[in-house]
Amino acid sequence: MNKLYDLRFVIGVFFLIIGVLLIGYAFISGSFPEYKMKINLCCGLLFSLFGLFMLVLKKK
To answer: Average model confidence (pLDDT) for the chain?
Structure first.
C-alpha cells in the first residue's frame, strides 16, 4: 500500500501500461501507408521509456 502513495510509481505504471497498449495497437492496426514511421509505435516507445524512467527514479 505504501507504493501507491509515491506518485513516481503510479505515474510510471500508468505510462508503461499506456505505452504497451500503443505498441500493441501499432502492430495490430493497419497504419497509413504514406507515413514512413508509425505514430502509435513512436508514442508507445516514448511513453514506455518515460514510465520505466519514473520507475527507476522510484528505486533510487
So the answer is: 85
